[in-house]
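Email to the structure team, subject: Medium-chain acyl-CoA ligase ACSF2, mitochondrial model.

Hi all, the expression group asked for a predicted structure before they design truncation constructs. Nothing fancy, just the tokens so they can compare against earlier work. One-line instruction: predict Medium-chain acyl-CoA ligase ACSF2, mitochondrial, return tokens.
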Amino acid sequence: MDKVGIKALISPSSFKKSNYYASMTEVIPELANKPEGRGEMNVHYFPKFRHFIIIDRNDEEKSYSKKKPIALMIGVLHDFRGAWRYSDVIKMGTEEDRVKLANIERRVQPDDPVNIQYTSGTTGQPKGATLTHHNVVNNAYFVGRRAGYNEKRTIICVPNPLYHCFGCVMGSLSACVHLQTCVFPAPSFDALAALQAIHEEKCTTVYGTPTMYIDMLNHPRYKEFDYTSITSGAFHFQTQQFKS
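Reply from the structure team: attached below.
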């Protein structure tokens, strides 16, 4: 947070076993003393940090609670001290704000930074890689051409996370650039959901990492589905895995 100099942080309250709000209270203990539903930040150790915004699942749970396990609902229906609710922030927008946003969008240039992707830190400390609009669109365009997305109808199964360039650039953005279809099997990787998506949506390309492919190939229900629509995949893996 300090290295990048973020002004605002938008985060889900939790995901799977991770409680992101609780993690933030450990990083910024002052949150516990702030009012509920107010996310203005002013802490000396993060001098540029101004707003903390939580994507709460309250609204989702009201609509989908009958479909979701009770375990997912525990700890969700509560207020967050020191954080704006995303739904409230959206409601704050005025016509003046929309005009201001449109003016900013018109000034954006291809070589302006669009995001900062952090390296995994496998071989050293994580490093922030600043990507420009031209960088990601150019990458998506040529990856798509190399894969033949500009020549034929393609339905891409993308079980990869969208916070990584594989999913967000090679997957969703490349599909948009070449007017192709992306299928996202589940909110996070689920081998069975990926197999079902390939079968039901007749995916022609399947993205994944070696471990994802292994999980799909070894799934006990693997033989229940039809994969004849697949013409290509994307990632390096061992010859024996490919043959299986």
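The longest strand covers residues 113-118. The chain has two domains: 8-107, 131-243. Ping us if the truncation boundaries need rechecking.
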